[in-house]
């Protein structure tokens, strides 16, 4: 009797679908993955069975609605391992910026019939509601992260986490520092690598897509940004952007914003 393949699901919550596309962009590697596992649920790729019991559930997106709250509890109950993928699932994402405003006020200002809009007061990471076994940071995540995590979990190995800062990756790639040479407000000194220092390698400043690195000295970087001529409000926006729900970035960003309003 043939051995049963491990079952995998990919779930979407409040997000842009970019991290799901990282799966689809695997190309030939996706076919190899399909030989190792059974895709029980992945609406964007075809199979739809959101309540299927699985060995590994990948979850994209943040919890933003009452329905999301109910659904993430079911996903957790039906999964042996739950892996969050991307900034939305790990730190609330760009939509978590609404946490800094009055949700009822802006909904009323935008929608003609706001009573039809069902939103929670805040957009929150998956880990705020259920146990998460592994977080893959990025906006979006990349194929290497997905394949690495999937293979590790399938073979009973603890997945490796990249915690180095983007600055170290820049040095490995021999990229010139854009803070020193161009005076750009680069988030690389406090951001974990995973992107291969993509933006700095093209002369652009890092926007912290991959979230806080290990032991990020956000206060020192904020002072450096002010030295570059950024206002306190602009400094706050650098931290409260893609990963505003990550505590290290949220606290520094709110502190800078409070300084601007003080």
Describe the structure in your own words.
- By secondary structure, the chain is α/β, with parallel strands linked by helices.
- The protein has two domains: 7-155, Rossmann fold, CATH 3.40.50; 166-261, no CATH class.
- The chain is built from twelve helices and five strands.
- The protein has helices at 18-24, 28-36, 66-77, 87-91, 103-110, 143-154, 166-173, 178-182, 198-201, 218-227, 232-239, 247-261, and strands at 7-12, 38-41, 54-60, 79-85, 134-136.
- Strands 2-1-3-4-5 form a five-stranded parallel β-sheet, sandwiched between helices.
- Helix 11 packs antiparallel against helix 12 (247-261).
- The longest helix is centred in the C-terminal third of the chain and has 15 residues, at 247-261.
- It is globular and about 60 Å long.
- 40% of the residues are buried.
- The model has no long low-confidence stretch (mean pLDDT 91).
Q: Output the helix-strand order.
A: EHHEEHEHHEHHHHHHH
CATH level 4 superfamily of the largest domain: NADH:ubiquinone oxidoreductase-like, 20kDa subunit
CATH topology of the largest domain: Rossmann fold
Q: Which term fits the overall shape?
A: globular
CATH top level class name of the largest domain: Alpha Beta
> Mean of residue pLDDT?
91
- Given as residue ranges, the uncertain stretches (5+ residues, pLDDT < 50) are none
Structural class: alpha/beta
Using the CA coordinates, give the radius of gyration. Answer: 20 Å
Q: Treating each run of at least 4 consecutive H or I residues as one helix, how many helices? A: 12
Number of β-strand runs: 5
Report how far the terminal alpha carbons are from each other. Answer: 70 Å
Assess the beta-strand content as a share of residues.
5-15%
Main sheet: strand order: 2-1-3-4-5
Helix content: 25-40%
Second rung of CATH, namely the architecture of the largest domain:
3-Layer(aba) Sandwich
């Amino acid at each position: 009797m043939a051995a049963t393949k491990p079952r995998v699901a990919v779930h979407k919550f409040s997000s842009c679908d970019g991290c799901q596309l990282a799966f689809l962009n695997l190309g030939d590697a996706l076919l190899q993955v399909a030989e190792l596992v059974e895709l029980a649920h992945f609406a964007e790729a075809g199979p739809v069975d959101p309540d299927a019991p699985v060995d590994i559930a990948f979850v994209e997106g943040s919890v933003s609605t009452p329905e999301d709250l109910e659904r993430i509890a079911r996903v957790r109950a039906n999964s042996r391992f739950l892996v969050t993928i991307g900034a939305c699932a790990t730190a609330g994402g760009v939509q978590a910026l609404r946490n800094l405003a009055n949700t009822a006020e802006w909904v009323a200002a935008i929608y003609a019939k706001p009573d039809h809009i069902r939103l929670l007061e805040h957009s929150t990471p998956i880990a705020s509601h259920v146990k998460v076994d592994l977080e893959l940071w990025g906006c979006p995540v990349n194929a290497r992260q997905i394949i690495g995590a999937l293979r590790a979990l399938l073979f009973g190995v603890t997945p490796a986490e990249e915690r180095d800062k983007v600055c170290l990756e820049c040095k490995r790639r021999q990229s010139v520092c854009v803070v020193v040479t161009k005076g750009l407000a680069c988030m690389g000194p406090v951001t974990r690598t995973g992107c291969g220092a993509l933006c700095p390698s093209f002369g652009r400043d890092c926007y912290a897509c991959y979230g806080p690195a290990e032991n990020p000295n956000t206060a020192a970087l904020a002072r450096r940004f002010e030295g570059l001529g950024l206002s306190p409000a602009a400094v706050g926006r650098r931290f409260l952007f893609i990963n505003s729900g990550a505590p290290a970035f949220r606290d520094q960003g709110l502190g800078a914003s409070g300084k601007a309003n003080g």
